[in-house]
Amino acid sequence: MAKGKNNNSKHSSLTTSQAILTLGLTVGFLLIACGIILGLMVVQGPDLTKAVFSAIGHWWWSFLAFAILGILLLAFLLAQLFVWPVKAITKVMLAFEEDPLTSDRVRSVHYNQELDNLGQLLNVTMTQVQNLVHSQQDFVSDVSHELRTPVAIVKGHLNLLERWGKDDPEVLADSLSSSLSEIKRMEVLVNEMLELTRAEKLTVNADQVQTAVWPVVERVYHDFQILHPEFVWTFDNGLDQKASVAIRPDHLEQLLIILLDNALKYSTERKEVHLALAKTGAWVEIGVQDFGQGIAAEDLDRIFDRFYRVDKARVYQPGGNGLGLSIVKKMVAAYGGQVQVESALGSGSSFRLRFPLTTEQVVTESDEDEK
């Protein structure tokens, strides 16, 4: 950074935009003035022109000096007016280079639309970069916090085994079981972080990806019925088999698994889960409802944040690492969909995924309605 600034300081002040503009405007004004004088001399004739110069006498050079100074001053002020927004942008960008989290922003320039647009674009870019920096800092902090406890547990058990635990079969079995459990939890955490990173970087071409919703949802529903027979399952289907959305089938399946897993984990008393499909206008809606512990109103805005858990007492219980809903939000947004949630504490929660119908499906249905 210092090297770059030193290189900038080596440039002569005569090569700056302001100096070039001042020189150009000065030459331009002088040429205009000379043109006006020559035009007057032609119009007035040589005799009248000679009479005028004779009347001015020795003041002629004073008038010429004042005219040149006035032209220089006017050119300098105009150049300053043109270059000032560029200097303001440069100042803000240097501040951003020194401190990426600076609050400095480029002010609006009402008399120069192009530079004003550039400044506002830089403001937006700086805000986005700062949001990414904050997200990265939060992510590193959260991951460090999440990994600190299992690493400490594994280290403690290994130290115990190294000292004397390996000679006690009961302690050895307990330490190995606890260590393997914590390693498994770290493995799940790392896999979820990778899934979240993929979801954030997901790019979609809606013209190339189309999935029929009903078969995927029905397959996942039957799989969960078989795996969890202790639950009461309900499936309300208001879609036809041709209804499709622009999402990969494995991603749609992943979203359903995350929501259904959450419904199972937080349904401790009333073991019942409802799954529903419906079409609302040009949207397909997929609903997952449970009747578990529910979510408090103050937590609804944060349940999609990374590592956020509604019940802090379940941090090391089967409630997960708090990344599932973050993955859902990122992935649904990448496919142009929406996530909606309704919940009441003690009454359960209802999550609804909304995806736009594919263009072909919307056109076909509208044509059928017209017929």
Q: How are the SSEs placed, and which strands pair?
A:
Elements: H1 2-9, H2 17-44, H3 46-56, H4 60-98, H5 113-163, H6 169-200, E1 211-212, H7 213-227, E2 232-237, E3 244-245, H8 249-265, E4 272-280, E5 283-290, H9 324-334, E6 338-344, E7 348-356, H10 359-370
Parallel strand pairs: 2-4
Antiparallel strand pairs: 1-3, 4-5, 5-7, 6-7
Description:
With about 375 residues, the protein is of the alpha+beta class. The chain folds into three domains: about 10-105, no CATH class; about 135-200, Helix Hairpins, CATH 1.10.287.130; about 210-370, Histidine kinase-like ATPase, C-terminal domain (Heat Shock Protein 90). Helices cover about 60% and strands about 10% of the residues. The protein is built from ten helices and seven strands. It has helices at about 1-10, 15-45, 45-55, 60-100, 115-165, 170-200, 215-225, 250-265, 325-335, 360-370, and strands spanning about 210, 230-235, 245, 270-280, 285-290, 340-345, 350-355. It has a five-stranded mixed beta sheet, with helices on one face. The protein has a two-stranded antiparallel ribbon with strand order 1-3. Strand 6 (about 340-345) and strand 7 (about 350-355) form a beta hairpin. Helix 4 (about 60-100) runs parallel beside helix 5 (about 115-165), helix 5 (about 115-165) packs antiparallel against helix 6 and helix 8 (about 250-265) runs antiparallel to helix 9. It is elongated and about 120 Å long. The two termini are about 70 Å apart. About 20% of the residues are buried.
